[in-house]
Design a protein that fits this description.
The protein folds into two domains: about 100 residues, Sandwich (Immunoglobulin-like); about 110 residues, Cytochrome Bc1 Complex, Chain D, domain 2, CATH 1.10.760. The chain is about 30% helix and about 25% strand. The protein has seven helices and nine strands. A five-stranded mixed sheet has the order 2-9-8-4-6, with no helix packed on it. The longest helix has 28 residues. The radius of gyration is 38 Å and the shape is elongated.
């Protein structure tokens, strides 16, 4: 009986010791995980109000026909009590660029920032609409731009004496319109212009003049078959023995091949042939 009690006591002690050892081992193998910081971003969501105060969300400018760039400056203030990060600024097209500090751009509470935007106007006419997307860690929004490109100012009227002198000079050298004082009217900044804009800059002075000279043909009433190739040939080489100069760079004119092709396509569109082409025999 005494031996049995001893065995029970020993078993109890061993069981208790085993429990202590197991608990110790489990405690040693436990890895404490640090709390994960909140990295949530709202970049893909619309930017709520009450975060950035802008001087304007839409701006408009008027540009002259000769102007190369339209420029805008958008100012803003961080009106929250914490930092905001500008992640990206994306214009809507390749002709529009944004100037700002390197991103990510940290805007501290109460700080003021500026984003400068330029739009390349070469080859463009009429009214343009552009946008610039600004993405922050609190959301994104768009800045809107409107550019109204004004038509070129009318050319000053020539006196009869000036017109007669110009005709006389052109009879001696039809390329004279691209030289000296004549170049002011006949070379009104052709760089970057195509189609209608190019016609207005370089052709209208003669062919769309209010007092068009009698020896200058009315392009809408030509009595010969016309086509895009017809217009291209005339623009490129002009006509020897007439007042029509050669406009191709290769022949002493100001226009490259792409400009000539765009001008020919424009004339062919607004002045379709009034005379059918000759029938093949």
């Amino acid at each position: 009986m005494k031996l049995r009690r001893i065995r029970i006591v020993v078993a109890t002690i061993l069981s208790f010791a085993a429990g202590i050892l197991l608990a110790t081992a489990q405690s040693a193998n436990t890895v404490t995980t640090a709390p994960t910081p909140d990295t949530t971003t709202h970049a893909s969501e619309p930017l709520p109000g009450g975060i950035l105060a802008w001087d304007a969300l839409t701006k408009s400018v008027e540009a002259t026909n000769e102007q190369e760039f339209a420029r805008f400056t958008f100012s803003f203030t961080n009106i929250t009590g914490s930092n905001i990060t500008v992640l990206t600024v994306h214009p809507s097209c390749g002709c529009t660029t944004a100037e700002l500090p390197p991103v990510p751009w940290l805007i501290s509470a109460g700080a003021i920032g500026e984003i400068k935007i330029s739009v390349n106007l070469q080859g463009k006419i009429g009214t343009l609409f552009k946008s610039v997307n600004v993405t922050t860690d609190r959301g994104n929004m768009n800045l809107m731009l409107r550019i109204n490109i004004l038509p070129p100012p009318p050319l000053p009227e020539m006196t009869e004496a000036q017109r007669a002198a110009g005709v006389a000079a052109s009879k001696l050298d039809r390329q004279v319109v691209f030289k000296g004082d004549c170049a002011h009217c006949h070379l009104r900044k052709t760089e970057g212009k195509y189609g209608q804009q190019l016609f207005d800059a370089i052709c209208a002075v003669c062919h769309a003049a209010k007092n068009r000279a009698t020896m200058v043909p009315d392009l809408a009433s030509l009595q010969v078959p016309t086509s895009e190739e017809f217009w291209r040939a005339w623009i490129t080489a002009g006509k020897a023995g007439s007042l029509m100069p050669a406009f191709a760079i290769s022949q002493g004119g100001p226009l490259n091949d792409l400009q000539i092709a765009s001008l020919a396509a424009y004339l062919n569109a607004i002045h379709p042939s009034k005379v059918p082409p000759p029938t093949a025999k």
